[in-house]
Amino acid sequence: xxxxxxxxxxxxxxxxxxxxxxxxxxxxxxxxxxxxxxxxxxxxxxxxxxxxxxxxxxxxxxxxxxxxxxxxxxxxxxxxxxxxxxxxxxxxxxxxxxxxxxxxxxxxxxxxxxxxxxxxxxxxxxxxxxxxxxxxxxxxxxxxxxxxxxxxxxxxxxxxxxxxxxxxxxxxxxxxxxxxxxxxxxxxxxxxxxxxxxxxxxxxxxxxxxxxxxxxxxxxxxxxxxxxxxxxxxxxxxxxxxxxxxxxxxxxxxxxxxxxxxxxxxxxxxxxxxxxxxxxxxxxxxxxxxxxxxxxxxxxxxxxxxxxxxxxxxxxxxxxxxxxxxxxxxxxxxxxxxxxxxxxxxxxxxxxxxxxxxxxxxxxxxxxxxxxxxxxxxxxxxxxxxxxxxxxxxxxxxxxxxxxxxxxxxxxxxxxxxxxxxxxxxxxxxxxxxxxxxxxxxxxxxxxxxxxxxxxxxxxxxxxxxxxxxxxxxxxxxxxxxxxxxxxxxxxxx
Length: 494
Ligand code: GDP
What we know:
6-stranded mixed sheet, 14% strand, XG_FTase, cell wall biogenesis/degradation, glycosyltransferase, golgi apparatus, transmembrane helix
């Protein structure tokens, strides 16, 4: 039942083959139509069905978004204690999904994407709660003529303290199901909190979000509020009632984030300025750009030397970086044939320093190194901020700028299980070389693997099998959702 494919977008096509709406003022968001000039063109076709679903969603958002009379009515009904209390619902009533920021920017981008796909499938309007200014001057608006930010000046927004909601709240899906009530039944609460943080995997009632009957019942609840730290897109593919729609939107299931990510996330002019300044200085003249994302997790300790060795081993073994040609120092018979710019993004500065030392040690006066393959290698790193500070605006702006720079690469090396890396590879449209997690503090024998797809992993999929009504295995329920090769407890779309 796959829909027809639009032609593969022309690289100069500023609307990315119809993915983007033409209805925006270009100066308000320079990156929207210009990123295509910097990024490799996507070789992946977009289904015309997805394009029309996006245009339909944009009209819905324009009709129901903040500032409209429909929105005012919906907030009014929310303020009343039950859906039918003050005004009776009508056919053109709108329903909403409210996202809340938790964890780092990579996680946030993936949960906004997951929420957006859920909104597309269920006819809801996605609104982002920019708690504490979490999203200020970070992204452009993705939907023309409207905003996706939940109004902050709405001090009397009826659902208070959304950041501190948890699965045990009286108005949570978990509590409603535990009480044996039907979500959205007559007289029930007009809003519910859905808990999709990774610890939900111990609680069947939270995971029933991914069951057909719960999904149907939730349609009747005008406001859903959620928190998640997971790319739960594959979970939506487990719900039978969305199967046909999803297969039409995504004939290639492993491209969901690639398409939706490039549709939704356009850096603000401030962030775009960081991106282009860096690009123009360091990458504009290179023949080839290699992005290396190095992330260290507390749960996967490894020493700097060991990890540096792993990066070198991986990049040289896979011929991503050349082997420096010590013997050729000064005796080279000509100019390098290729300029390779290496972008290292990391909280830590040591890896790019060591790589720079390596490639500059037998410097051939041009500031780069002769190598066996006569490639000149230059190594750059935009920032090394030391530690994660996801509550700080400038910190998030730099993180976004670096994800976007990573996405301009011709080849990417990422760290296993990092959502930061998933965003870079997905926007780039590249299958990354993944630096495998350390084993007992040591680099594994296979330093990196070429990922099977560019799709992010769903790290904590539901364990609850809706049909068997007991614990099951989300990696074995439908054909196109498999366990991740390198992270067996997770699943991914294939
Ligand atoms: P994950 O923890 O690797 O899955 O990625 P997240 O993006 O969710 O969280 C890590 C956060 O740490 C980022 O959002 C940044 O705030 C910061 N961070 C991690 N690596 C880098 C990096 O290479 N560059 C910058 N600027 N920030 C980073």
